[in-house]
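Kindly inspect this chain:
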Amino acid sequence: MSLILGFHHIALIVSDYQKSKHFYVDILGARILNETFRAERKSYKLDLAFSDGSQIELFSFPNPPCRATQPEACGLRHLAFRVDNLESAVNYLKGFCIDCEPIRKDELTQKRFTFFRDPDNLPLELYEEHKA
């Protein structure tokens, strides 16, 4: 028996709450589960879900520090989203003026992927599930 069943959610602190809410909901298609404003903290908490049940929590705080380093430093490297068709996903993001790196193939899995950035410059990956 495995103690860990999987990930429930990933939490992100964002610098511009409305901009990030628009990005994750209106562009990436997350569904809002709950939105809370905590007046004592001057902070929003937004619970989001994707169609497979995976969740992201967005937090806003006054004057959060910037991300200190690029993905190769210790800590969270990137978030990867599963897609069925990589070209379609890249073209969809281009429609919102979101740049993606050139599509590459993982030498170990032979799956295709690319990277793009969220409004806070967090590296996000699109990982194609079905094509080899």
Remarks:
- The two ends are 32 Å apart (CA to CA).
